[in-house]
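Sanity check

After download, print the first record. It should look like this:
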Amino acid sequence: MSNDITIARGAKKLPIGQVGKRLGIEAMDLIPFGYDKAKISNHYLASLKQKKDGKLILVTAINPTPAGEGKTTTSIGLADALKRLDKKALLCLREPSLGPCFGMKGGATGGGRAQVVPMDDINLHFTGDFHAITSAHNLLAAMIDNHLHWGAESGLESTRVAWRRVLDMNDRNLRQIVTGLGGSGNGAPMESGFDITVASEIMAILCLAQDAHDLEQRLERIVVGYKRGRVAVTAKDIGAVGAIMALLRYAMLPNLVQTLENNPVLIHGGPFANIAHGCNSVIATKAALKMSDYVVTEAGFGADLGAEKFFNIKCRQAGLTPSAAVVVATVRALKMHGGLSLKESASVGYDALKDGLANLGRHIENLKKFGVPVVVAINRFTSDTSSELNAVEAYCNELGVPVSICTHWAEGGRGAEDLAQKVVSTIDANPSQFKPLYRDEAPLLDKIETVAREIYRAERVEASDNVRAALRRMEEAGYGHLPVCMAKTQYSFSTNPKLVGAPENHTLQLREVRLSAGAGFVVGICGDIMTMPGLPRHPAAEGISLNSDGEIEGLY
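Expected structure tokens:
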């Protein structure tokens, strides 16, 4: 079968105006970015407010492995399948980051016959949203430095600046830097560093804001540093918010594209799920709920990160009630969670599969704690045997969870029709009893310990006196009501990426906490997680090029 980019290049795309018309969007309410992508106007978004909401379906997964799970591919296949069942459905996804595209993970537009297009544009510059967010973030950094250079009327102390810089690229050499070298004309020397753009608080703010007014208010609350007495200095104090809003003028609008089957897709925002909250924008999700009866969306990485934050952060802040959760797994990935290597996972290994099913079971148990009905999707590989698939089905049946064997990668929406039917039936038969895992009023450390205990199955949280003191200061400053955003490895329930399966009674190492006052959460950085990833020994960038026709090769 052809590779993903060849399939995407051969897609018979509709003009984006026709895709919009299927949703009831007139041409005047689309801002075209070429033939096959557009932004949806504020005028149209405002017109949706009085419409009834559809059903929200979250697609999540087991802990990722090199064998692959196919969460985005399954999300696309499910949305296409719902349309094949004559359901009014709409898909909401995150935008891919350039860092993973050129690094190890690759793009995020699905695969095989379950893709969104234009695949190459979406995975690279798309409509410029990430560039706008990067510019907005670094504008604030420049204005902070300028504010200090001219005397800091706010009282901001140069040794207490908390705002770093960002770049949408994996570049480990920029994690820690010194700025202002070369004399007083270049500013005062200060320690700083870069995070990846998807870890920017402005990215999180854009994805959690309800509208332009809410976006502006959140930007005003960004804490850029502190003055004497540990009093916060904000982006509003620096006078940067108006200019940031100007840079985000179009970035705040959702992007409309299509699947290979010409079904509409909203792609907007892209915070990482291990170092941020991992969900597409609230603006896009809420608009989709007004435009369709079923909205399929996803949360990054495994359910211990993406789904937990989707429920505890996004749904809490936006007032969303998910109707169902779909957990994606593959037989090969389950065997890796049972102890096999990537090479061994393609061979039959019943004992490893049996052991690895504990990872799937743990995620199912965790999702049920939120009061949301669960369906399991097995993304089938050609190497899977009937007996292996039967073993997974039997395991899910024992847990009382519907399970579907899916072939959407090879067959598109047709290969996920059974999954779509089971999701619809589950929603109809089991009304959601959704509730977040912890109360707003709980102390910040208690919230962290609740996630560690209930989701990660940790025995204890290890936090230094400095970390505990920082949490107390946040509470004293009025931030104790915020949810927590845990930054940890995606590969394990623990902070050790090599501890696969379903480990218990481990220790969660809480290394650092950061306040994201504008986004409305407190970030807990655990273990060795980095907010600026590095490239692997052989990054994907080594295999990407332009052919003689000017077409991109090697992107996946």
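If your output differs, re-run the checksum step. Summary of this record's structure: The chain is about 35% helix and 20% strand.
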